[in-house]
Every structure is written in C-alpha cells, then in structure tokens.
Fold Phage integrase family protein.
Amino acid sequence: MTRIDRTPFTDQDKAPQDTDVDGRHIWVSKQITFEQSIEAYDLAVQSNALHSFEDLVHTGTWHKYEQRAASLARKHPSHDPFISYLSTDHANRWTSPNSRQSYRSALIRMAARDILELSPVYWRQVITDEMNEDHRIHLIRSLKPNLDQDVRNQIKGAKERLCFKKVDKLNRAVLFLLQVPPDPHHTALRERSSEEGDADANRESRTLASKKATLLALNRHQRRKAKTFPNYDWRSHFWATAVLPDDHLDDHRRACIATLMLTGCRPSEFSDDLGVAIHTSDTDGHPCLHFEIAGAKVSDEIDGHPGKGQIWRQIDVRCQTDEAIWLFDHMGKLDQKPIFLKLPAVAHKQSGELLMPSERHRRVTVSLGKLITRLGKIAFPHLRHKLTPYVFRHSFTSDFKAGGHEMDARDLAGALGHQSARTQQHYGSANTARGLAGSRMLQVIEVRSSTPVRQPARQSYPSTEHPRPQLKS
C-alpha cells in the first residue's frame, strides 16, 4: 500500500451514528454517492478561484449571502434555499438576470463551504464503514487527487461521526452544486440553455425596460409640446414646475436633483461614504460648475480580470440650463466652498447591528427614488410611467449619443463612471433624443476619470493616469 492507503482509519469509527432524536440512536442512510461527493468537492474548490471565504467575511459579502439564502428559504414551503432557488429558476420567475446571479452566487458559496468542511469527515466515515477490503482500497485511491496536506489533516482530525443534521446539510449542498456548478469568472452565468435562450434573448430586464419606456414617453411628450412651444424641454419643465416650487424640499436636496440632471450620476453616489463635491469657477465670463463624483460601483482587478467602475470622475459644466444656473447662484450664497452633497441614511438596524455599505446605498437610492417619483407626478400628472433618478442617467446618455459635441464614447464612459466603453450600450439611445431641445451634454466642457476607459486608444484623448485631484476652495 501507498502512504495514502495507510491513512489511519480505526474500527472505532464504525460505530453507529448518534443523533439527538428522543434520545435514540439513528442510522442515517447515504443519499449521495462517494463519487458525487468527490465531484462536488472539486467544484467547491473551483468556487474559491477568485475570493476566499475569509475575504468574503472581511468585506461583509458573506453577511449578504446569508441574507439572500434566508430570503429564498422564506419563499418556499420547504424552507430550503437550495430547493427554492431551483424551483424559481425552473419557472424562470427572476425579476432580472442580476437577481438570479446574486442568489446563485450566494448559494454556490454557501454550498461550497459546507462541502469543504464536511466532505473529509464524510469520506472517513464511508471508508471505515466499508467492510470489503478491496472496495475500501478503491475508495481511498479514488481520493488521491484531492488528498493534499490540508485534506489529510482534516481526515485525521475527524474524531466524531457526522450527526443527522450535518449529513443532511452535506447531501443538500452536494446535490445543489452538482446541478448548479460554480462560475467564478461569470463567463456563462447569465446565459441560459439553448432552449431557454431563444425565449429570453428578446426580453430585457423589467427595470431597464421601465426606465427606457419612461424616457421614451417623456420625449414623445416633449415632441408634442414642441409643436406649440419650440424650446420646450421636459427636464426644464420638471425643474420649474415641481422642484423649485415644492415647499417640502430644502436647497440641499434641490442641489442633489440638479446634479442628477446635469451629470447623470447614480443616486447611490449621494451616500454618506461617497458623495459629490461641487466647485465653481468663472471662465471668460461664463459661470462653470465642476463636479467630482465618488464612484459607487467599483471593484479591483483580480488575477488579470479587469475591475469595474471608476473610483472617481470629474465633469466640468458651463452653466446654460435652468438647474445649472440655479445651482451656481445657490453656491454663491454659501460661505463654504466646495460643497459636498450627501444624503443621510440609517447606519444601524433596530437591533443595533451595523448596516452594510451596500444596504445604506440601497436605502439612499430608494429614498431619492420616492422623491423623484413624487415630483414627477406633479410635473407630469398624465404620465403613466414612473419617473426615477435613473431616467436622468438614461437621458444624459441619450443626449450624448445624439451628437452635437466633440466628445466620444470614452468620454461618455468616464462621465457615467464606467471602466469599459461597452457598458454604455445599456443606456439611452441616440434616436430618443435626436432633434430635441435642452441637451445637457452641450454644456459639458470636459470629463476626467481615475483610470483610462477600455477602448482602442485615440490620439487626442489625454492621459487619465494621474492622482485624484484636490478641489480648491
């Protein structure tokens, strides 16, 4: 025998499995095969290709995974998140591809954790229970590819047998991971099978479709109004009839809404750990605003895989539209410059537990979204669609794509906070804004971002590899 074959399994390990069920000893039958457990173990190791469990715990991601698993468990009579996921996936009841991805990632990592923790104990248990010596040797040798030093130590250190609950946990984790294998690089995560792909290819995310439909309806409204009022612009109308006269709004929130309209920034970027800084200047007699935005969707490059999102970006605007002029005048009345736009959010749960940054960002987005929707109903009482902050982001992109300026796709990506110029294909459309008055892009002077946008280089585009600028008062 080899050293692997001489792993010290003792006869003591052959004792029946104990479970605390009315004080009785219960023997738990195996629902998975030895080969299935090995295959699932390999998949569990693959799931750790980019981020270890320690990284997930340190960044707070593991806490979000637990919340998602609990949410899925509540949605199914079995209270099993794995069964709930498979049921929802089979019926294709996801609200969006991102929703499916978030739940899948959470359950895969939770299943992988259980498999990596319990499989070595399970292997020892199965091998010691095997009475046929030839079969036992076969089982041990089948483990050779997986028996690194850590696994050996886990097997040797297994002093007790798996209880009923742990065997059931391992069974469910193995069966789930075999059906839903990990995809750590997300190369095929959002792809459905070929049979499902034909049905899903023409269907957009509900939220994305809603934003585009709202913008399309507002632009149609503007075209109708323009027949009577050639300079009519739905955003200026929104500002003049809903934002300025509203007695429930303070100037700080008005400044946030003006910034949304002028820069197309994300609503979550007004969170207290991010924020938007604004500085003013007077260039050749023209009032200008300089926005510095801390990016909300940022990830680092890992193992050659590019990250996403700009850490910061700057957008310089020459004040020509109503909200830009108001914001410039508002800042002139303040003693402190630059100003920093941040919206408060509750930092703790009712239990006293600290909320994760992503949850605080979500709450700021929801709060600002409710405000914009309420103001939208005032400005456009007959609009059947819901106005949200992201509609301004789409309208900003549509203005850019409609042309009339000297910037290119890399400038738009930088202004939106994207690392890649390809991401903007999900935002706006040139046709929806072409020929309309009130383009916000025409007053944008310059865009700078923390890192270069990924796209074929152009000679006239200045290098953006410089440290983060400091706004001067």
Notes: The chain has two domains: 11-200, 206-449. Residues 97-129 form the longest helix (33 residues). DSSP finds 17 helices and seven strands in the chain. Residues 42 and 146 are 8 Å apart (CA to CA).
